[in-house]
Amino acid sequence: VCKYVALELKSAFEETGKTKEVIDTKYGFLDGKGSAVKYTQSDIRLIEVTENICKRLLDYNLHKERSGSNRFAKPAICT
Length: 79
Known about the structure:
- It is built from two helices and four strands; from the N terminus they run αββαββ.
- The chain is of the alpha+beta class.
- The chain has one domain (about 1-75).
- The strands form two sheets. Strands 1-2 form a two-stranded antiparallel ribbon. A two-stranded antiparallel ribbon has the order 3-4.
- The radius of gyration is 18 Å and the shape is elongated.
- The protein starts with a helix and ends in a 6-residue tail after the last strand.
């Protein structure tokens, strides 16, 4: 299972790493200080990816007749 968690995390980071968005953090509670942070280097990106990892893992099918990590497989995409 850890293998597929790592694969899905890598895939999700590759998908979200293509944006050029910048997050403005110049809205401090008292002093209004802060700086702009690229989305690709933000904590928000990490949180969003980890929140969606369970949904991605539910796409896998479990094959009882196979052994080891081959028991898990994503269904083939038919177009």
